[in-house]
Design a protein that fits this description.
33% of the residues lie in helices and 23% in strands. It has 31 helices and 53 strands. A hairpin with a 2-residue loop joins strand 47 and strand 48 (1168-1175).
Length: 1255
């Protein structure tokens, strides 16, 4: 029935159009482009109606001509007609060549000779010549020629050769009304309790709040969708926090509108326009007017009596009356039209005494963003050159495949009167930059299979007019926490002010299109109600970015979740205005206590049913169940290979299967056997897992608590003598990779005790002297691991020695000569020198390269009799296909000394040799006396190449021609994260040290982000900090590095660091769904997935979810039926990441006893957890909730992201109360957090699925 009504309405409209045309004045016909029956690929653009007089059609095709807009026209008579088209050459203001907005007018399929959109910078009637009309009814089409923003407002036909259409102002408006036969008297749209103008998040929340409190509401929105900047037209995600004191119920309406997806410039579905529409249409007290633009007000004294609005498509005018009006337009349009006091631009410091204000007032505002993104294609894609756009070169181009919030323009222009030009300049920047990258840049091969898929044509504004209320909120009110009696809406965003990016100004002075954000931290601060109504228009309220604040204060209150809460309060106040027949000021003066009661209760609807949510929870449970089963199989598989005498697991199942070592067996595998047992098999956890710890401690502790490699056949240590470097390396790995994650999950335990004992002994035996004191190593990996452990253990124990040791390392790297992005690596190839027992002929060399089956090493071999003169006897590469010994013939080689010079490999700049041997002409193996080298990474010393053990290696970085290089893969990422964790720690524990570290920590991160990332935000394995040179691979440890970046964002609110995380997460699905991390091994997937889960926990970018599910499935496929994954110590990382994935799907829930047929999962909706659980057989047990472990176990002041941590999802505070609602039995109960953590007793009947809510 609805569909039929829609069709009838459309036919009626077309008939009306014909009637209007056929009865229009004399022989003149006006066609409004926005009223064409079929707009084709053209879009309606209404943004500039107040400036140029009308909506228009825009050919927004991203360089591909759009489909024709078509309508049928009935002429009053046949004959010759002159044609006029209202349009403009949109690039003419910049005197740019090419007129990209070209289009044709077709009459019954035949184009006029004139090409339109080619003349003048202003809107005008372009002459189209004369056309012969042979039939009274004809088809008129707009035919786009370029796909680049051609625009048409209207078409006029006249058989009066002297006629010229009026050009602007009231004469043009009268002309439109007359020819379209619009009534001179606007249609009465009705009387309401409140008229809300603006359907963004603020306006929608205002309307919903007022309607739920009984008011009749008109909601006027000038676009076809609700949401404003959070709609699919602009695509900005919601920011700010909701549900905070003093009124935690505020934000519940915002939550109803929220798609739950994060990320700017994402696919349209992320912004869920339909959800917002559903919420509004469900309110019987709201009458919604989409595509309706408010253009005039009627006043009586200091009160508004009516608002006039125009339908964007039909031009019909309507009059809305009410005792109250809410301006949620963002631009303060209704207030401006009514004569409300307002400001626009920046106040001067003398005016407001704000430290962030400029010395003198000016007209600068924050700008408008035109976001965009590209997508990967299977085929090569093209993009036309754009000579009319901004022009770029290698230095000025933006090597990006997605434009985020910081593609922002118009900061020094009028965001209202010049807005069309502001938007168009942004489009010129996007198109010009993409054309250069695709067609002219030195890296154009990177962009061959990328297509420009979306560019916003509706620009996202941040600031224009600010209407003044009884309170004008200022910076010092917020930062000095001034208390207002009417404090309501809590703002949490930083004072975030935008400025032209200096690098952009360098290349485009006065024409900037990129910005930077400068942040000033605040504590959560409630905004006073008196900012939400006009001080001189008695019945005008406002919500959104046009409220009563200074330019500086707008920097915090303008984000959309905060604006939505303003709307909730405005709707509540409006209900009191009606109840007591008062105005908004009267609510403050006489009814403030009642407004507080409304705010305390809130108007949000609780989501009790949510069938889809429980279906998703069960699907999450199914995935988690599979993951837990896989982890159990992993444990069983490895235990089948445990040493019978000791019960310890070997390093690997192929080579080195006869040893246990700390850096592999203990660090990578064993801890996640323990964790699997802790969750799924408590008897094993309390039995065999604990026995293994006791055995390992007894057998392997060599220097105090420090473990060393243990040989099963020898029943003793593998090496006769302890090597402190090797032992410290293994011990640090064991702590950071294994014992620390266990401690973060388990809290106090024997594993925690083992960790503390090892850590203390590492520092007791630290062998390296520095001017800051002794440190454990010169290895970035070891010291990075120490920094992570010390930072966390300092908080856990409160023992200041751990902070002192951490600061010692921090000073060594950040204040000394070992800064990670300033360290100078050797400028020549690294070398390994082998001395034979005597001079002799050398016929061939055999070398086993680490990862030789996928890495091709570049090297040469030289021989010498005296170590002074050298002869090169081989120069080439390894085969890259085998990790076994590879043979190289050495014709005419002789001498006592052999030197292998390494110059890196196809993946990175390291040289890694497992074993080396030389053979004489008779085929006999030559004896080697000693092995030395230019350097080595602890514990991978040169002697390892001749020890007969393929499991040891000589490793060294810094290949030929290098500058200061930083590894961002397994070995370098530790120092990045470690230093950032220390930075967070000293922020709270040693502020003076934090101040000293601030510049060098930012220097490190800025350099990494500038040079270490690819175009999609992920990291190379290494990069040269001096030249920007890098390898071609992507490190699976990209997330580990971004942990550090995000940690510093949490401390300093450096927005670019947060954006780096959002950008990387947002690009995973599109660009890295099938990337073979570390050649496609499970360990590579595990590290990459872990990093993504940890970051997603902080920034839930919804597009990353698909990548996480897909990549986890790829990793799981590698596991063999017997539970073994690949048969080396990296298998433990498979289990570690799988458990992280499972806990994401259960939102931290576990059960006890675990049973494989019990499936449980959850989804989180704000502060409510929705749980589904079922079992194939009867089951009774406990459903256990997670707690904020970072606070309770680790006692950390902030939950910054940490390598190998298990993120917290839904957590309960042990001393708080929660409401549990069993929907299956429809019973409610109040439980303490302590009870939830200890476990809620559940009785499941076989085959019965239960749904529960906990809030």
């Amino acid at each position: 029935m609805k569909k039929r009504k829609s069709i009838l309405s459309s036919l009626l409209f077309v008939a009306l159009l014909y009637l209007i045309v056929s009865t229009a004045s004399a022989e003149t016909i006006l066609l409004e482009a926005e009223s064409f029956e079929n707009p084709g690929g053209w879009v309606v653009d209404q943004q500039f109606m107040d400036q140029m007089g009308s909506p228009f059609l825009l050919a927004h095709g991203l360089g591909v001509p759009v489909n024709d807009a078509v309508t049928k026209v009935r002429f009053p008579s046949i004959g010759k007609y002159r044609v006029w088209v209202r349009t403009r050459d949109w690039v003419a203001p910049w005197k740019a060549p090419g007129a990209p907005g070209r289009f044709q007018l077709l009459i019954d399929g035949k184009p006029l000779k004139t090409v339109f959109g080619t003349e003048r910078a202003d809107w005008h009637w372009q002459k189209g010549g004369t056309v012969e009309i042979r039939n009274k009814q004809v088809k008129v089409s707009l035919h786009d020629l370029t796909g680049f923003e051609g625009r048409c407002d209207a078409v006029v036909f006249s058989n009066d050769t002297s006629f010229k259409p009026p050009t602007k102002g009231e004469s043009l408006n009268s002309f439109r009304r007359k020819l379209l036969r619009l009534s001179p008297t606007p249609e009465d749209a009705g009387r309401y309790d409140i008229v809300v103008v603006g359907g963004g998040i603020a306006g929608t929340c205002t309307a919903v709040s007022a309607a739920r409190l009984g008011l009749q509401v008109a909601l006027i929105q000038n676009r076809p969708v609700l949401g404003g900047n959070n709609s699919s037209e602009v695509r900005v995600h919601l920011n700010g926090k909701i549900n905070l004191p003093p009124y935690p119920a505020l934000g519940n309406v915002v939550k109803e509108l929220d798609s739950g997806k994060r990320g700017n410039a994402q696919p349209a579905s992320n912004y869920d326009d339909k959800k917002k529409l559903r919420v509004v249409k469900a309110e019987k007290n709201i009458r919604l007017f989409l595509n309706t633009h408010a253009c005039k007000v009627e006043k009586k004294g200091s009160r508004i009596t009516a608002v006039f609005a125009k339908n964007i498509i039909t031009g019909k005018e309507m009059r809305f009356t009410a005792p109250l009006f809410a301006d949620c337009t963002g631009d303060g349009t209704i207030g401006f039209l009514a004569g409300a006091d307002y400001r626009m631009g920046r106040e001067g410091r003398a005016q407001t005494q704000e430290s962030l204000a400029p010395e003198e007032p000016d007209k600068m505002t924050m700008g408008a963003s035109v976001q965009w993104y590209t997508e990967k294609t299977d085929e090569f894609s093209t993009f036309p050159d754009c000579p009319w756009a901004l022009q770029f070169n290698e230095e000025s181009c933006q090597r990006l495949t997605r434009g985020d919030w910081d593609w922002e323009t118009g900061l020094n222009r009028d965001q209202i009167t010049e807005f069309e030009s502001i938007r168009d300049h942004a489009l010129r920047a996007v198109y010009g930059n993409w054309a250069f990258l695709k067609n002219s840049s030195r890296d154009k091969v990177k962009y061959e299979k990328l297509k420009l898929s979306w560019v916003a044509y509706i620009a996202g504004k941040r600031e224009s007019r600010r209407l003044l209320g009884d309170v004008i909120l200022q910076q010092q009110d917020i930062q000095e926490k001034k208390e207002f009696p009417d404090a309501f809406v809590t703002t949490t965003w930083t004072i975030d002010l935008h400025y032209p990016a200096p690098e952009n100004t360098k290349h485009f002075p006065g024409r900037e299109f990129r910005t930077i954000a400068k942040h000033a931290r605040i504590d959560p601060y409630p905004i006073p109600y008196r900012c939400f109504y006009s001080r001189n228009i008695n019945n005008l309220m406002m919500a959104g970015r046009c409220i009563s604040v200074t330019h500086v204060a707008l920097g915090t209150v303008r984000v959309m979740r905060t604006c939505g809460m303003m709307g909730e309060v405005v709707g509540m106040a409006a209900s009191l205005c009606k109840k007591y027949d008062t105005d908004p000021r009267g609510v403050y003066q006489k009814h403030l206590d009642e407004l507080k009661l409304l705010a305390k209760s809130g108007v949000g609807k609780s989501d009790i049913a949510g069938d889809d949510a429980f279906k998703q929870a069960m699907e999450n449970g199914r995935l988690a169940n599979e993951g837990f089963i896989r982890c159990r199989n992993f444990v069983k598989g490895w235990l089948n290979h445990a040493d019978p005498a000791t019960g310890l697991i070997p390093r690997n199942l192929n080579r080195n299967k006869d040893i246990w070592n700390a850096q592999d067996s203990a660090a990578d595998n064993y801890p996640f056997m323990v964790l699997t047992a802790a969750i799924t098999d408590r008897p094993m956890f309390d039995g065999r897992m604990l026995d293994m710890l006791r055995t390992e401690t007894k057998l392997t502790s060599r220097i105090g608590n420090l473990p060393d490699t243990y040989s099963f056949p020898k029943k003793n240590f593998q090496s006769a003598q302890p090597d402190i470097g090797r032992i410290i390396f293994g011990s640090s790995e064991y702590i950071k990779d294994g014992l620390l994650p266990l401690t973060e999950w388990l809290g106090p335990s024997p594993w925690c005790d083992r960790m503390i004992g090892i850590l203390d002994d590492i520092w007791q035996h630290a062998p390296v002297d520095t001017k800051y004191g002794k440190i454990p190593s010169t290895s970035q990996e070891v010291n990075g691991e120490m920094l992570q452990a010390l930072s966390r253990i300092y908080w856990m124990t409160g023992d200041k020695k751990y902070l002192e040791w951490a600061v010692r390392l921090g000073d060594y790297y950040l204040l000394g000569e070992h800064h990670p992005t300033r360290v100078v690596s050797p400028t020549k190839g690294q070398w390994l020198l082998l001395e034979l027992t005597e001079p002799q002929q050398i016929a061939r060399a055999e070398i086993a390269w680490i990862y030789g089956d996928r890495r091709s090493y570049v090297f040469n071999i030289e021989t010498s009799g005296d170590k002074r003169t050298w002869k090169k006897v081989f120069d080439g590469k390894s085969g890259g296909k085998s990790a076994a010994m590879e043979s190289y013939g050495l014709p005419e080689a002789s001498g006592r000394y052999v030197r292998v010079n390494g110059f890196g490999n196809n993946e990175n700049d390291w040289t890694n040799i497992a074993e080396i041997a030389f053979y004489g002409a008779a085929g006999h193996k030559l004896k080697i006396k000693s092995a030395t080298a230019s350097g080595h990474q602890v514990p991978n010393k040169p002697a390892n190449t001749v020890d007969g053990d393929m499991g040891t290696r000589w490793s060294v970085g810094g290949a030929g021609g290098g500058g200061p290089r930083l590894r961002l893969d397994d070995h370098g990422c530790e120092i990045v994260s470690g230093l950032c964790e220390l930075y967070a720690t000293v922020n709270f524990a040693a502020p003076d040290k934090k101040k000293a570290y601030e510049k060098p920590i930012h220097e490190m991160l800025d350099r990494i982000l500038e040079m270490g990332r690819d175009g999609h935000g992920l990291f190379y394995n290494w990069f040269d900090a001096a030249t920007g040179a890098h390898d071609n691979g992507r490190t699976d440890n990209w997330g580990y590095n971004l942990n550090g970046v995000y940690t510093v964002y949490l401390i300093d609110k450096t927005q670019a660091y947060r954006q780096a995380v959002l950008y990387a997460l947002g690009n995973l699905t599109q660009y890295y769904s099938d990337y073979k991390w570390e050649g496609g091994g499970a360990d590579g997937y595990a590290d990459s997935i872990e990093g993504a889960i940890n970051l997603y926990n902080r920034e839930p970018v919804r597009s990353a979810e698909k990548w996480l599910d897909y990549s986890t499935r790829l990793m799981w496929k590698i596991q063999k039926p017997d539970g073994i994954v690949e048969g080396w110590h990296g298998d433990g990382n498979f289990a570690r990441t799988t458990i992280m994935y499972c806990l994401w799907k259960t939102k931290g829930l576990t059960i006890r006893p675990w049973r494989k047929d019990v499936i449980f999962g959850a989804v989180q909706d704000g502060d409510t957890l929705k749980i589904s659980i079922r079992a194939q057989k009867d089951w009774q047990g406990r459903l256990i909730f997670d707690i904020p472990r970072h606070k309770i176990f680790m006692r950390m002041p902030l939950d910054w992201p940490r390598i190998n941590q298990f993120p917290e999802w839904f957590t309960v505070e042990v001393d708080k109360s929660y409401v549990g609602h069993d929907l299956t039995s429809d019973s409610k109960t109040t439980l303490t957090g302590k009870q939830l953590y200890e476990g809620v007793i559940i009785h499941l009947k076989a085959g019965t699925e239960r749904h529960m809510l906990v809030k």
